[in-house]
Design brief:
Order of helices and strands: HHHHHHHEHEEHHHHEHHH
Largest sheet: 2 strands, antiparallel
Structural class: mainly alpha
CATH topology: ABC transporter involved in vitamin B12 uptake, BtuC
Shape: globular
Oligomer: single chain
CATH class: Mainly Alpha
Number of helices: 15
Strand content: under 5%
């Protein structure tokens, strides 16, 4: 029986997702309408993309607390520079996210600053840049330039919203990096045991820096999508998404201790977050209470997924 439960553990997030969908569907049958489900999932693609990058940071046993502020900064950058740069503003945004993430990784690996401190500090720096560039006010994107450059995001391909297509493409790319490359194998080695990875000749610092850089880049993609979707930029536009991204990764089965899980797990975790969030909206639970609920879920997810064998208790 124990062996059977253990063998089912990798599927727990998907089993949980199915159970939650059935419960919410029973509460509100309209939730199971295919068109409603597609619209609901398309709406959370930016969160999903942010969580995918966060997975890399957590997979190696770290965490990236800068993603929300990087996304906020990028919404301002995209709004300010869309008109002069056109489609190249997307390249600029991703480069900004990649750079912020790489710097976080460098501070963590070369200066021996814990990742939660390094990324939190970089998040504050990104927030300061966002406030400076925006003049501490909400900015509106040039509507004509937005529609001409990024209007395709809101179209459909063979009946599928392009937002879902973008999310699927990013998922395939990060899945390939994690499972089909030397970098992915090194990620797993670092997450499973950093000292063993060093002993096997892996450049651990390089792997960590790249993992955080990818996290920053995906946060930038999420920020760009936020900006285009809401047609503007603001230093607070993506607020509230940090805890949701972390919850999505952890409930998907990628623990803070790293080494197991991955981006496919994060897909399940993000869908679980969406279903829970939808249930709370149907039950008319206000935004403040929703944050409390996700805080509780975060604590439970950490307690259930963390690998205690990696934690040494010194008495």
């Amino acid at each position: 029986m124990i062996m059977n439960i253990h063998s089912l553990k990798p599927y727990f997030p998907w089993i949980t997702l199915v159970i939650l969908v059935l419960i919410v569907g029973a509460i509100n049958p309209a939730f199971l309408n295919p068109n409603s489900l597609i619209s609901l999932v398309a709406d959370i693609v930016p969160l999903f993309i942010m969580a995918l990058g966060m997975t890399f940071a957590i997979y190696i046993g770290g965490i990236d607390l800068s993603v929300q502020q990087i996304a906020n900064f990028v919404t301002v950058v995209a709004t300010v520079y869309l008109l002069p740069l056109g489609i190249l503003v997307a390249v600029l945004c991703v480069l900004i996210g990649f750079t912020f993430g790489a710097i976080s990784g460098w501070i963590t690996t070369k200066q021996y600053v814990p990742s939660f401190v390094a990324t939190l500090a970089m998040g504050f720096i990104a927030l300061s840049f966002a406030k400076f560039l925006s003049g501490e006010r909400a900015l509106s994107m040039n509507a004509e330039s937005r529609d001409a450059t990024f209007g395709w995001i809101f179209d459909t391909t063979l009946g599928v919203p392009n937002e879902l297509v973008i999310g699927a493409i990013v998922l395939i790319i990060v899945w390939f990096l994690q499972t089909r490359t030397t970098f992915g194998r090194a990620l797993k080695a670092v997450g499973s045991g950093e000292l063993a990875a060093v002993a096997s000749g892996i450049n651990v610092d390089q792997i960590k820096i790249l993992a955080f850089a990818i996290s920053g880049a995906t946060a930038a993609i999420a920020g760009l999508m936020f900006s285009v979707k809401l047609s503007g930029g603001d230093a607070n536009l993506a607020n509230g998404f940090l805890i949701l991204a972390i919850v999505a990764v952890l409930v998907g089965g990628t623990p803070l201790t790293g080494g197991v899980g991955g981006v496919i797990n994060t897909l399940a975790g993000t869908l679980i977050v969406v279903v829970i969030r939808s249930a709370m909206i149907y039950l008319d639970i206000n935004a403040t209470m929703q944050q409390m609920v996700f805080g509780i879920i975060l604590i439970v997810a950490i307690a259930l997924t963390i690998d205690r064998s990696k934690i040494r208790i010194v008495k």
